[in-house]
Amino acid sequence: ADMRSLVLIGHGSHLNGESAGAVFRYAELLRERGLYDEVIEGYWKEEPSLRQVLRTTASTDVTVIPMFISEGYFTETVIPRELGLGHQGPVPPEGIARVLGGRTVRYTLPYGVHPGMADVILARAREALPDASPEDTALIVLGHGTTRNENSNKVIYANAERLRQSGLFAEVHALFLDENPKVGTWPDLVHASRVVVVPFFASEGWHTLETIPEDMGLSGEVTEFPGNPHGPQTVYYAKPVGTHAAVADVIMHLAEEARGAAGRDGDVDRTHEAAWQALLNLARRGGRMGEVLLSPHGGVFEVRHALDEGTPGADLHTVVTPEGLRDLSRWDAAGEHRPVHTYRTLKRGWRAVLSEADLRRGIHFLYPAVVEESYAHGCHSLRHTPWATTARRQTGIYTRVQRATPEQVAHVSREVCAPCLRTRLWAGEKLPRTFLDGVPGAFPCAEACTYLVAEIREEVSGKRGKPAG
Ligand code: SF4
Fold first, then answer.
1. Closest residue by CA, ligand 1 atom 7
2. Residue 425 beta carbon below 6 angstroms from any ligand 1 atom
3. Most buried pick, 126, 234, 253, 448, via CB within 10 A?
4. Contacts of 222 (CB under 8 A, 6+ apart)
């Protein structure tokens, strides 16, 4: 069967549960289009992690898109390294293609540098000012700009140039928060009486809500400036480009261009399929996986917290979609974000009723990569990465974990890993059987997760207090 997978990579967060939201939303929009057999999310600081995500794809044809607004440290260093692409530095326009573990993996530029973003800027401008006209309307494309990454302003200038060529505006300006020409100089630069400002930012945040309005003197979506040097002006402030639904079109173009002349699609990845057949066999018999109970239920499957065994279904909150299961497993009973899904902090009081296909997606959301890694462990093909190797690989602010003593690593991981179902193979622990062989809480941990790496960094920095959560 012809098959292809799309993987969207986000940053995610150990602390903030909302951080992954934008990536989820685009993944859902792209799933609805149905051009890819599956759309999977992967994260630097959530699960499935960058180290795990390729293993969770069902096909041998994988296109990976970094969901970032500009090129930089994550798209050029962290993501290629963690995915194991064997590449560092700027990504060429045609992307990077590799064969990894039997899969053809294509890694693209971030969506923000795609020429199609000019259309997203235009869509945002039209929302803010539907009758923008070449007679009297100026467009400001507003970027962050920074002396650290000279690439980030190139994208802003390129988009401004494209929109200038379109002839849809009287003037088009590229302005920046952190470099010249600065955003605060707009009253001297812009002549038109109506001005649309589109922030070229990934999402709504401190810059779009505070710094930009402050630097420009804006008081809301529409602000009048009666006494400006070139006459009275009205500024229409648009929403950031990164959250517009049309970004889904850009992602699709980027993915199709990366596949280029690939011609035929991939196949089902056999190992992946075998792992999920093992899971389905467990579910058909009825059995436990970590904190949940899987049971056959009149042609479909039910998932519930094992501690809710025997509770009448009517007393439990019922979800019927994989996304429903995803959303109730992202926060614990106290409302705290769960960046490590294998922590024994799954809340109770619900059940998910899912078809076979939805069960696979639901379990992928509930325990990302656990089925694939447990199956691989059972086949003796799950490679362990000792702490020293993980530490050596780190860059940026995480470089300092290399200074952690073995005692510090042991001490921090004793605390951080205590609530986790996974068994630390990377630290020499043994796991003779997994949940697939009937030991419910037995999940392998092949490598220190980024949550532990971050906690060890805090320890080395002397900033680590009580363990979070
Ligand atoms: Fe769990 Fe510790 Fe492994 Fe992280 S490093 S996944 S907390 S066992």
1. 417
2. no
3. 448
4. 234, 235, 236, 237
| Domain match, 258 and 275 both | no
Within a domain: residue 294? yes
User: In whole angstroms, how far apart are CA 179 and each of 6, 143, 216?
Assistant: 36, 9, 15
Report the number of distinct structural domains present in the chain.
4
122 & 216 share domain = yes
Dihedral-angle region of residue 330 (phi above 0 means left; psi in -120 to 50 means alpha; beta otherwise): alpha
pLDDT at residue 247, as a whole number: 94
Q: Would you place residue 264 in the very low, low, confident or very high pLDDT band (cuts 50, 70, 90)? A: low
For ligand 1, atom 6: residue with the closest CA: 449
Asked if pLDDT for residue 151 goes beyond 80, the answer is no
Residues 79, 34, single domain; the answer is yes
Closest by alpha carbon to 111, among 164, 155, 73? 155
Residue 342 Cβ inside 6 Å of ligand 1? The answer reads: yes
Residue 251 sits in the same domain as residue 239: no
**Quick one: which atom of ligand 1 is closest to the CA of 413?**
2
Name which of 141, 169, 136 is nearest 153 in CA terms: 141
Q: Does the Cβ of 420 fall within 6 Å of ligand 1? A: yes
In Å, what is the CA distance from 242 to each residue of 10, 113, 153? 13, 12, 16
Indicate whether 79 and 192 sit together in one domain: no
What is the C-alpha to C-alpha distance for residues 51 and 59, in angstroms, rounded to an integer?
17
Cα–Cα dist 246/402, whole Å = 42
Query: Is 423 a residue whose pLDDT tops 70?
Result: yes
Residues 208 and 198: their CA atoms lie apart, in Å, by 10
262 with 278, same domain: the answer is: no
Distance from residue 347's CA to the centre of ligand 1 (Å): 19
Cβ proximity of 273 and 58 under 8 Å: yes
Half-sphere exposure of 308 (CA within 13 A, CB side): 23
For ligand 1, whether the C-beta of 417 sits within 6 Å is yes
The CATH code of the domain that includes 69 is 3.40.50.1400
Q: CB of 449 closer than 6 A to ligand 1? A: yes
ipTM of the shown complex: 0.99
Q: Which of 313, 348, 368 is at the close of a domain?
A: 368
Among protein residues, the one with the nearest Cα to ligand 1's atom 5 is: 448
Of the residues 206, 225, 243, which one is the last residue of a structural domain? 243
What domain range includes position 407? 374-460
